[in-house]
Amino acid sequence: MPKHILYYHLVDTTFLIKDEEILKSHYRVYSFFFHRSTGWKFIGKNIVATIRMLWLLPRVDAFFTWFADYHALLPVILFKIFGKKSYVVVGGYDAAKNVYLDYGAHLSPFRSKVIRFICMHAYRIIPVSSFSQNELFDSIGTDMKSKSRVIFNGVDPKEFYFSNKQPRENIAVMIAGDKDDNVFKRKSADIFVDVAKAMPGYRFLLIGLVNRERASFQHIKNLEVLPWLEPEAIRAKLEKAKIICQWSRYEAFGIVLIEGMMCGCTPVCYQFGGTMEIVDRSIGYVTHELNIDSLCDTLHKAFQNPVEPQKIRDYAIEHFSISRREQALIDLISCAGRNNQITK
């Protein structure tokens, strides 16, 4: 069983930080950041990172990283050469090839070959959903499926919760970024805005816009648009709302949906991708069509008959708590060397 792990990460998002915390609670972890700057700055910083990795290589037993992409290539090769194990988490972009949305690493044939090589030489591949796993193997082939195990992302119930001190309001929330037009469209934030216009009797809250001028939405009186917020601020918004929406045109999993469910919001989702691995019809509403009429009809039903908040939270905790992910990850890593079997 590994005792020392090298943790390689690209961004400081919540779910990457959570995995680092999980690993640190069980192993000695050496973590460092892969810099995604450009030019000589990129070369210089990552030469230093590579030297440090080579220095650490004799001291660690395994390598763990998020995303099967360029940053994972050299570590996976080196750990394979030295007879050590690599664990690679596969998310959304590194599994995707969506021409319509211009989204996915596999749109580049060369990048797709790099990802295949990484997966071929990794000891374990850990997709965040069955949808993500299927998308990955559609692009690189299914011959490595035996080393893959789906482990869902998790949310800490202590960070996302609700109190019963105030009644819920007729508010529907969507949490979506706008890093560029593709992200805005992929998350269906454009449709959320149109649905708000079509349902003036209800309130809508869109969280996460940083690049668009929020003043441009001021003419929609029942729509509030906010930038990215700290988790506690998001939790405070969610516990007041009846509905959490996830209508992504492409979604590998959807952790913000689980955050809303932990806060007792009734999920209203578009039936596509990893979203359908989260929502059970007993605790939410699903629309089969991504058009205004269908979404308005589904939302109206959800507002009139929301699911009991505690029932939603209990379901989310049972299936998607961070402790469940922790147990699955540690079981997977701890079994290294004892046998080569994976059970989903």
Number of helices: 12
The main sheet orders its strands as 8-7-6-9-10-11
Count up the domains: 2
End-to-end Cα distance, whole Å, is: 20 Å
The sequence of SSEs as H and E is EHEHEHEHEHEHHEEHEHEEHHH
CATH class identity of the largest domain: Alpha Beta
**How helical, in percent, are the residues?**
25-40%
Class inferred from helices and paired strands:
alpha/beta
Largest sheet: 6 strands, parallel
Runs with pLDDT <50, length 5+?
Answer: 337-344
Number of strands: 11
Tell me, rounded to a whole number, the average pLDDT. Answer: 89
What percent strand?
A: 15-25%
As for the CATH topology of the largest domain, it is Rossmann fold
Please give a structural write-up.
By secondary structure, the protein is an alpha/beta fold. The chain has 2 domains: 4-154 and 322-334, Glycogen Phosphorylase B (Rossmann fold); 169-318, Rossmann fold (3-Layer(aba) Sandwich), CATH 3.40.50. Helices cover 39% and strands 17% of the residues. It is built from 12 helices and 11 strands. The strands form 2 sheets. A 6-stranded parallel beta sheet has the order 8-7-6-9-10-11, sandwiched between helices. Strands 2-1-3-4-5 form a 5-stranded parallel beta sheet, with helices on both faces. Helix 9 (255-262) links the parallel strand 9 (241-246) and strand 10 (266-270). It is globular and about 65 Å long. The two termini are 20 Å apart. Mean pLDDT is 89; it is low at 337-344.
